[in-house]
Design a protein that fits this description.
Beta-lactamase, globular, 10 strands, Glutaminase, EC 3.5.1.2, 14 helices, binds glutamine, alpha+beta
Length: 321
């Protein structure tokens, strides 16, 4: 079906979602990373970036929160840029785990395979793959430059979060050494884990994440800077990774009810990408039992359903003035 949606319809849907959920108090800040437990739980922002570069922003869209696991998407893209689709599949995988993001059991079940770069195991493996190998300074630079390219502006390290996370990441240390044992870490393990922890501690805004979502939806061209960031052919690979495991063990429910591939982080951010149409991000710190922001989920779902959109419908949608 041919369908036209106006920008004012999108704005109205976003405003409605914001008003509906701004006072919602469900969920709880992540507390296994002490820094995150103390973030103002009432922060709430929604940003949509259209493919003409226009953004629609509501609430705390300029607040810099911990990017956390949303950064797994960015570094997966960097690995795809450096190695191509086939090598990512062989060295890490592109499968769902159906288990929590930090699951050790998932590694054992997959016979040593990290499954996907979008869970902790695969993300640590991805950091180990970033080139140049054995050069932590330039690996870090590559990670940050890639995020800057995708988001149209630079992220900023939150030192306190980095410290808090480094002091408490015992589970991730176990994951790293287990993967090392299976030859799935492709650089120094301690350095790879540190890069992962540091990238999770980057401060990012909902606006920046919506621009990244739009870059993916726009086949690799950042709609704001107009820069081609990655090869067009990688776009469906990235979107399929996000669709498969973006909400961990709740991914199926999420896709079924929202219709949009999206990736979450325990900092409260969610970044969605609707191919050919827009990127969307929402941010609110309280999360559910799988580590996904409660309000961000409600808001994005509301907007998608209100507009009658789904990545899985055959509709040919155009956004008009
Ligand atoms: N789901 C998440 O956002 C988890 C990220 C966090 N840095 C961790 O490794 O536990």
């Amino acid at each position: 079906m041919q369908k036209k949606i106006s920008i004012s319809q999108i704005k109205d849907a976003a405003q409605e979602a914001f008003d509906l959920y701004k006072t919602n108090t469900d969920g709880k800040n992540a507390d296994y990373i002490p820094y995150l437990a103390n973030i103002n739980k009432n922060l709430f922002g929604i940003s949509i970036c259209l493919l003409n570069g226009q953004t629609i922003q509501l609430g705390d869209t300029e607040y810099k929160f911990g990017i956390e696991s949303v950064s797994k998407v960015h570094t997966a893209i960097l690995v795809l840029r450096q190695y191509g689709a086939q090598q990512l599949l062989e060295k890490i995988g592109a499968d769902a785990t159906g288990l929590p993001f930090n699951s050790i059991f998932a590694i054992l079940l997959e016979n040593d395979h990290p499954s996907t770069p979008l869970v902790n195991a695969g993300a640590i493996a991805a950091c180990s793959m970033v080139k140049p190998i054995a050069d932590p300074e330039n690996k870090w630079k590559a990670i940050v430059d890639n995020i800057t390219d995708l988001c149209g502006s630079a992220p900023q390290l939150i030192d306190e979060l980095y410290k808090s996370e480094s002091e408490t990441n015992f589970n991730n240390r176990s994951i790293t050494w287990l993967l090392k044992n299976y030859n799935r870490i492709y650089d120094d393990p301690t350095m790879s884990l540190d890069l992962y922890t540091r990238q999770c501690s980057l401060g990012i805004t909902a606006t920046q994440l919506s621009i990244c979502g739009a870059t993916i939806a726009n086949n690799g061209t950042n709609p704001v800077t107009r820069k081609q960031i990655f090869d067009t052919a990688l776009s469906p690979k990235i979107t399929s990774l996000i669709a498969t495991v973006g909400f961990y063990e709740h991914t199926g429910d999420w896709l079924y009810t929202s219709g949009i591939p999206a990736k979450t982080g325990v900092g409260g951010g969610v970044m969605g990408t609707l191919p050919g149409l827009f990127g969307i991000a929402a941010f609110a710190p309280p999360i559910d039992n799988a580590g996904n922001s409660v309000k961000a989920q409600l808001a994005i779902k509301h907007i998608m359903n209100k507009l009658g959109l789904s990545a899985f419908s055959g509709d040919q949608v155009t956004i008009v003035e």
